[in-house]
Specification:
Number of helices: 15
Mean pLDDT: 91
Number of strands: 13
Low-confidence stretches: none
Structural class: alpha/beta
Shape: globular
CATH topology of the largest domain: Rossmann fold
Helix content: 40-55%
CATH class of the largest domain: Alpha Beta
CATH superfamily of the largest domain: Glycogen Phosphorylase B
């Protein structure tokens, strides 16, 4: 049994592919090689992961270099993250699984184009997704809404839901509560209005103004920085995106994780990966009320604070409450992680599905 994970759009350190899928396959004694075009800096180097730094390359050039790495190799199964990967994976594997975690097309695919350019690219990406569905032998789905088109168009094809849950051993139980006198917020993501950065800035400034005698800190993980004028009792620290395990360890020191993105059509139908890591830490969460959370994580939707992105009064009220009793909900979050929202619950069904796919 041999499996190739072919990633044109995801880094090798991706929690789903490297820390869940590859980890479980290798633990079960199967050969699993991972190929990524997005990063050549591995957090945990191994002899079964092949990468190059192709972030700045066009997708077709990434595919060309991946094919070079795959030359003269053949696998029982290939797991691909893009329609382009699915289109050529058949040359190197008996069976191909398309793992759908992204919309094709999505807003980021169409930015910066003219109206005609957007229309042409939209149609091209729709056709590419359709072709990938035809070529694939089976599907992995990360969430319900992104599964719908493929389940409707290809009802006879096998599929398996692989949610974005971390492993239990990545987040061992915390022995004691955080005792730091500084209340720490975390925002991780692009510094754009659409992703809620301006709302986050307004919220943390408002809470610092409301409690001038308390010390506050906003930790920002992003690929850019921003000028922030804040009260003296609030510090803002910008850091680049962290390797996976480093990021998970950082969460133990955070009091409240913020994400106030727009609730537009695409955002509200996308299930956030970060959310499951936040509750695993556990850390308190304030998130935009997204339909995908209610659909794919109903237990969690009842436990975390979901708000309208522009309801500043409700957001400030919640933060004030958490500042007074920060650990009130943490036990419930940890319990939800341990009982339902962890990869260990999915590992055996995942391995059984892989065995079935290998069969003629």
């Amino acid at each position: 049994m041999s499996v190739a994970i072919i990633l044109l759009s995801h880094e090798p350190n991706d929690c789903i592919y490297q820390y869940n899928i590859a980890y479980s396959l290798r633990k079960a004694g199967w050969q699993c090689d991972l190929y990524s075009a997005c990063n050549n800096h591995l957090e945990e180097p191994d002899s079964h992961t092949y990468t190059f730094d192709g972030v700045s390359l066009p997708l077709k050039e990434r595919a060309k270099q991946i094919k070079t790495l795959l030359k003269d190799k053949h696998y029982s199964i290939a797991i691909c993250d893009t329609p382009l990967g699915v289109s050529f994976a058949r040359q190197y594997a008996d069976k191909v699984i398309y793992y759908i975690t992204e919309w094709y097309p999505s807003k980021k695919n169409l930015r910066g184009l003219s109206c005609i350019g957007r229309l042409v690219k939209f149609q091209a990406l729709v056709l590419a997704s359709l072709w990938a569905g035809i070529r694939a032998d089976a599907f992995f789905f990360g969430e319900s809404y992104k599964a719908r088109p493929f389940r409707m168009l290809f009802p006879w094809k096998r599929y398996f839901y692989i949610p974005y849950y971390p492993r239990l051993d990545i987040f061992p139980p915390v022995e004691q509560d955080k005792k730091d006198s500084v209340f720490t917020f975390l925002y991780a993501g692009p510094l754009t209005a659409e992703k809620g950065w301006e709302r986050v800035k307004r919220l943390v400034k408002a809470i610092a103004d409301k409690y001038p005698r308390k010390q506050w800190k906003l930790l920002v993980l992003s690929d850019s920085t921003d000028e922030c004028t804040m009260p003296d009792n609030l510090t803002v620290s910008f850091e680049p995106y962290q390797p996976y395990r480093t990021f998970c360890n950082m969460l133990h020191e955070v009091d409240l994780c913020l994400d106030l993105r727009d609730d537009d059509y695409e955002n509200t139908h996308c299930l956030p990966i970060k959310l499951f890591h936040y509750i695993a830490a556990p850390a308190n969460v304030l998130y935009t009320d997204l339909k995908a959370i209610h659909k794919d994580a109903p237990t969690l939707a009842k436990a975390v604070a979901l708000v309208q992105p522009d309801d500043a009064e409700r957001q400030l009220e919640f933060v004030s409450h958490i500042a007074d009793s920060p650990s009130e909900s943490l036990r419930a979050f940890r319990q939800a992680f341990e009982q339902e929202y962890n990869w260990d619950c999915k590992e055996e069904p995942f391995l059984s599905f892989i065995k079935k796919i290998q069969q003629p």
